[in-house]
Amino acid sequence: MVMDIHGKPIAERIAWLFGLAERHAAMYRSPEAWLARQRYQAEHPTAIAVLKCMDGRINIPVATNTPVGLLMPFRNLGGIFDLGWPHLGEVLAHHVQRVVNAGRHVLFLVTYHYSQGEPRRGCAGFDYDTAAAIAHTYEIRRQVEHIFGSDHGTVYPLVCGFETDEDALVIHGTTGEQLHLAKLTAADRAALEQRLAALLPDMPAQMRADLLPLLHGNLEHIESVRSQIRSRERLLDIEHREWTICLGRGFDFLHTPNVALIIGPYSPNLDVPIRKAAGIIEANMQAGRIPDDGFLLLASVPYEEIGVDRARAELKSSFLSSFAADVIRREFPRLGEQMTTRTAVLDWRSRTLEAIASKQ
Description:
InterPro entries: CsoSCA_cat. By secondary structure, the chain is an alpha/beta fold.
């Protein structure tokens, strides 16, 4: 069972994680899954990207019942991004250009997270200050508008909250009003399409139509969470239980919540989120939420073409692995002794995770 994996010895947990990656790749490249993605994108052509925190409890595809591989994730400590960062700006611009060239809209979900039951279960990246996290999401929204335009005809930045106790979305409207999905009544749900149109009048109709399945999926997920809200497993899930630090991109296979802290390779000060992630892993061990027999540091970089593109991904992944390992050993000497490192590249077309020899 998924819930049992947190208590297994580290060797078993690592084997389980790579097995999960293999199963995900096999499913992703299967004819049935490929056809399902093509059909879904034909019915809902808007490309949706999610800017979110590295927190392992935040899994938007799971929380919205969205098929795996359709939402493009961007993760960093606290969901803190600056579109002036050179690498991040290039990746986002490339993503938008490729999608727009195919005649599609782009919807950015700019997210923050919090806990309604206990502020200290909120976002450590903002020192549990939800107001500061919300203010930052609006700054990201302004940066997206600066780059891609404020008329929102093609690219729309939507501010969203994520309440981790019930995995519930909070949609922020254009005039400051909010739509808390966890608070909707049956009547509200029946009128969700109209509520969304009133909340986001400047969003193109096609985008709203493509956002609706995520909201309906989140309502179903909230009901599922509420059915187990008092169970021991759920009480553990709303706390940090991560035992892996993932650095880079290409971690879609981790659709199991609360396993990994995922850090995108975007910030010029990459040591900051690495230190924060290591501190969370150490705290998890000290609190007994995970065994103290070790943790995994996994670096991954995607590539789209064999040859030069893959070779460059290998070097980049090796650099990220070495950089993170050095930070952890320097700042957390005891934790560094408990670290297992794995370095990989990801074939973006098939989502196959390929281990490479570490240079460490």
